[in-house]
Design brief:
single chain, about 450 residues, alpha/beta, Aspartate Aminotransferase, domain 2, binds pyridoxal-5'-phosphate, pyridoxal phosphate binding, Glutamate/tyrosine decarboxylase-like PLP-dependent enzyme, PyrdxlP-dep_de-COase, decarboxylase, pyridoxal phosphate
Length: about 450
C-alpha cells in the first residue's frame, strides 16, 4: 500500500502553521466571494492529480477566504475555538473513517460516545440515566428533543405519531419564550407542527421568560398534549430562563419540558454560574452544542433525553441488515442520521484534555472576559445594553446607523471580529467570548480597536 505519511504530514504541517498564525493574522477577511469561487472553479479534470498537488492547490486556493474564527479575537455569533486534542482527534476520526451507526459498524466510536455522554451529563447537571445523541449542531439537537417530545405527548393521548403521522392527530400545543432561538421554529416546521403553533411567553428585561407570563399562557391552555420550550442562554444576552420555576409550572399542566441550552447549559459546569441553570435536571430533553463553548471542532452537539423510550421511538430505524447490535441504544438509534461521523472521539478528547477543572475555568474565564469588555466599553462612554450574566455582551454606539457603521469598521479592521444584532428594536454590536485561547490582552487590544474605530 502506498505510504500516506508525506501527504498526511503535509496536511498536519499546514494545520499547525495555520493554528499558530491565528494569534496574529487579521481576523476578518474582506474576501471577494466571486474571485474565490472562480479560483475553485474550472472544468472538471479528466485525469487524476497527485494527492500532494491537490492538497497544495487546496491550501493556496482556500487560504484567502479563511476566517480566523478559531482564533482568540473572534467574537462573532457564539463561536468556540477547537482545543488541540479535539482537533487532532477529529483528524484521526477522518483517517479512521468509521461510520458510527451501531456498535457493530464501529465499536470504538460508540464506546467513545457512551463515555463522553456520561461525562457531559455529569458536567451539565443532566440525570445520568438520560440518553445522549451526538448530532451536528443545536439545530439538530432541538429537532431530536422535540421529536421525542412529540412522540411522548401524543402517545399519552393514545396516538402513535411514528406510525400514523400528524394527519388526524390530536393537536399539540407548544409554549415557548418570545426570545427563543430561531432553530426552535425550524425544528417545529420540520416536525410538521409548523411555527404558528407557538404560543409565545413574554420575556423579562434581559431576555429570560417571565414566569408570570408563562403562568398566564398555561392557565388559558386547554388540556391536551403540551410541550414547553425553555432556554438556557439567550443568544443575544446570555440570559437563562428560570428553569426550576418554569418547569414546575409546566409540570402542573402535564407538559414535556425541552431546554435549548446551546451554550448556556455550560453554566452548570461552574459553581460561579450554576445558579443560572438551577433546576436544569428537572427537564425532559436538552439540546447543547459542543462546537460552541466546549471548543470542539465543527460540527458537534448533543441531544439528551430523560426518557430513553421516547428518544429511541422518535428516532427508531430498523433494517434487516442492521440487526445484531444488541446493547443499549446508541449511535444512529438516537439521531436522525443513518450513516454518521464518529463525533465522540473529538468530544471525549476535549473533555479528557480539559478535565472537570479545565471546563470550569473555561466557563469562568470567558464570563470574566465578557465582563471586562462591558467594563472597558462602558468606561469609554458606550452603552452596554444587557446584564452580562454569561459570555454575551451587547453594545450600543448611538443610533442604529452609527452602531452598524462601527460594527462594519471593526469587521474590516481585522484586529477582532464582532457581529451585530437587533435587540429591543435597536441595533447593537454583539460580542461573544467563547474561545478557550482568548486572553485579557486579546480583550484589551479589541477594546482599544473598537474605541479607535468608533471615534
Ligand atoms: C447557536 C444556537 C442554536 C443553534 O445551534 P447550531 O449549533 O448553530 O445548530 C440554538 N439555540 C441557541 C440558544 C443557540 O445559541
Amino acid at each position: 500500500m502506498e505510504d500516506l505519511t508525506p501527504l498526511f504530514r503535509l496536511a498536519a504541517d499546514h494545520a499547525a502553521r495555520y493554528r499558530r498564525s491565528l494569534r496574529d493574522r487579521p481576523v476578518g477577511i474582506p474576501a471577494d466571494q466571486d474571485e474565490l469561487t472562480r479560483a475553485f472553479s474550472g472544468p472538471l479534470p479528466t485525469t487524476s492529480t497527485p494527492p500532494e498537488q491537490v492538497l497544495t492547490d487546496l491550501i493556496a486556493t482556500a487560504e484567502p477566504g479563511l476566517v480566523a474564527s478559531a482564533g482568540p479575537r473572534y467574537f462573532g455569533f457564539v463561536t468556540g475555538g477547537a482545543t488541540p486534542a479535539s482537533t487532532a482527534a477529529d483528524m484521526l476520526a477522518t483517517a479512521w473513517d468509521q461510520f458510527a451507526t451501531t456498535a457493530v459498524s464501529s465499536p470504538a466510536a460508540i464506546a467513545a460516545e457512551t463515555a463522553a455522554g456520561t461525562w457531559l451529563k455529569d458536567l451539565l447537571g443532566i440525570p445520568a440515566s438520560a440518553t445522549t445523541g451526538f448530532v451536528t449542531g443545536c439545530q439538530a439537537a432541538n429537532t431530536v428533543g422535540l421529536a421525542a417530545a412529540r412522540h411522548h405527548v401524543l402517545r399519552q393521548a393514545g396516538w402513535d405519531v411514528e406510525r400514523r403521522g400528524l394527519l388526524g392527530a390530536p393537536p399539540i400545543r407548544v409554549v415557548a419564550g418570545e426570545e427563543r432561538h430561531a432553530t426552535i421554529d425550524r425544528s417545529l416546521r420540520l416536525l410538521g407542527l409548523g411555527s404558528d403553533v407557538v404560543e409565545p411567553v413574554a420575556a423579562d428585561a434581559n431576555g429570560a421568560i417571565d414566569p408570570a407570563s408563562l403562568h398566564e399562557v398555561l392557565r388559558t391552555a386547554s388540556p391536551g398534549p403540551l410541550i414547553v420550550c425553555l432556554q438556557a442562554g439567550n443568544v443575544n444576552t446570555g440570559a437563562c430562563d428560570p428553569l426550576r420555576e418554569a418547569t414546575d409550572l409546566a409540570r402542573r399542566h402535564g407538559a414535556w419540558v425541552h431546554v435549548d441550552g446551546a451554550f448556556g447549559l455550560w453554566a452548570a459546569a461552574s459553581p460561579a454560574t450554576r445558579h443560572l441553570v438551577d433546576g436544569v435536571e428537572l427537564a425532559d430533553s436538552w439540546a447543547c452544542d459542543g462546537h460552541k463553548w466546549l471548543n470542539v471542532p465543527y460540527d458537534s452537539a448533543f441531544a439528551f433525553c430523560a426518557h430513553p423510550a421516547a428518544h429511541t421511538a422518535a428516532m427508531s430505524y430498523t433494517a434487516a441488515y442492521l440487526a445484531g447490535s444488541d446493547g443499549p441504544p446508541a449511535g444512529a438509534a438516537l439521531t436522525p442520521e443513518s450513516s454518521r461521523r464518529a463525533r465522540g472521539f473529538a468530544v471525549w478528547s476535549a473533555l479528557r484534555e480539559l478535565g472537570r477543572d479545565g471546563v470550569t475555568s473555561l466557563v469562568d474565564r470567558c464570563c470574566a472576559l465578557a465582563r471586562r469588555f462591558a467594563t472597558g466599553l462602558t468606561a469609554a462612554g458606550f452603552e452596554v445594553a444587557n446584564d452580562v450574566v454569561l459570555n454575551q455582551v451587547l453594545v450600543n454606539f448611538g443610533d442604529d446607523t452609527r452602531t452598524d457603521d462601527v460594527v462594519r469598521a471593526v469587521q474590516s479592521d481585522g484586529t477582532c471580529w464582532t457581529g451585530a444584532t437587533t435587540w429591543r428594536g435597536r441595533r447593537h454590536m454583539r460580542i461573544s467570548v467563547s474561545n478557550a485561547t482568548t486572553t485579557e490582552t486579546d480583550v484589551d487590544r479589541s477594546i482599544a480597536a473598537i474605541i479607535r474605530l468608533a471615534a
